[in-house]
Specification:
The complex is a heterodimer of chains A (101) and B (211). Chain A is mainly α and 101 residues long. Chain A has two domains: 53 residues; 30 residues. Chain A is built from four helices and no strands. In chain A, helix 2 packs antiparallel against helix 3. Chain A is flat and about 55 Å long. By secondary structure, chain B is mainly α. Chain B is built from seven helices and no strands. In chain B, helix 3 crosses helix 6. Classes of the chains: A mainly alpha (101), B mainly alpha (211). At the A-B interface, helix 1, helix 2, helix 3 and helix 4 of A face helix 2, helix 4 and helix 7 of B.
């Protein structure tokens, strides 16, 4: 049959409520990150820490919910992990090279 | 009799379009990973130069309008929210709503680019660009602004590409080529848009909140 091919492969329809909650969380995290940074909370000590924690958290929300990774097969998650590992190795080895030059 | 049956089978095959939903998405994700490596290289470069010139990067961040950066982040996040919701709308058979949501995302992309244009022209008018008189003898800030223009510029190119892809999705929906049953084009267009959003999530603290 030519019709309903995609519909027959288990499609997970994400609800508007889920998207709205994720969007609200993203906006909240953005405002939290920028206020920590712009108001120099704790004399600027938290700036880097906030950026290192909040930005990946926001990216994860986008990847898992908006990009449906939560509902995809394991293969997609494995591919993402491989990509992240390559970037971390790239960053780590470059840092070592620069630091020990 | 068997000839008739064979004919019917052949006719049936001729009408059947080959579609690979899973494969189409997998291909898009692979492309997005290659994009991650492209931007990843620039992020590594930023990390190295920032480690070398921490004060200059902080000074460079001081010349940014952080509020514009935050506003643009909220604009992109809202666009991502709209295009994600458009898939749900289409899957539930609400084509008009889906088209409206994609249209909203396109508008957020245009708004983002307008803000970006205002920012860039402001910086260039004030003399904040590589090899300007203002930045003479300040190698760290020169690097900061070089990276700023390259990274936000490359991101801007992606925003423009995203607008083009979403416009194509809108046209295909209007023509009935992207439908409740066959929505993978919209899904892939949305994936691309979300990647553009994710890159900006990281650009915000690197440049606008660097002070």
């Amino acid at each position: 049959m030519a019709v309903a091919h995609e519909a027959t492969e288990e499609i997970h329809v994400v609800t508007y409520t889920t998207y709205t909650l994720v969007w609200a969380a993203l906006v909240g995290l953005t405002l939290l990150l920028s206020s920590i940074s712009l108001l120099h909370v704790g004399g600027g000590r938290w700036d880097a820490l906030a950026a290192f924690i909040i930005s990946p958290l926001k990216a994860a929300l986008v990847v898992f919910f908006f990009m449906h990774l939560k509902y995809e097969k394991t293969l997609f998650r494995v591919m993402l992990m491989v990509t992240l590992c390559i970037i971390i190795i790239f960053l780590g080895l470059t840092f070592l090279d620069v630091a020990l030059r | 009799m068997s000839d008739v049956a064979a004919e019917a089978v052949r006719a049936g095959h001729a009408h059947e379009e080959h579609r690979d939903y899973e494969g189409a998405k997998l291909g898009m994700w692979l492309f997005l990973f290659s994009e991650c490596m492209l931007f990843g290289g620039l992020f590594v470069l930023y990390a190295m130069y920032r480690a070398d010139h921490p004060r200059a990067f902080s000074a460079g961040g001081g010349h940014m309008d952080a509020l514009l950066g935050v506003a643009n982040t909220l604009v992109l996040l809202t666009g991502s929210f709209a295009v994600a919701s458009s898939i749900t709308a289409l899957q539930r058979g609400r084509r008009k709503l889906a088209m409206g949501l994609v249209g909203t995302t396109i508008l957020t992309g245009v708004a983002f680019m307008i803000v970006k244009a205002v920012e860039w022209s402001g910086h260039i008018r004030q003399g904040y660009f590589p090899h300007s008189h203002l930045l003479q003898g300040k190698p760290g800030e020169q690097l900061f602004f070089s990276l700023y223009y390259v990274m936000t510029g490359l991101h801007g190119v992606h925003v423009i590409a995203g607008i083009a892809v979403l416009t194509a999705a809108l046209v295909l929906m209007a023509r009935g080529k992207v439908t409740q049953e066959h929505f993978v084009f919209l899904e892939n267009a949305a994936l691309y848009w979300h990647l553009v959003d994710i890159i900006w999530i990281f650009l915000l603290p690197l440049f606008y909140l660097a002070a």
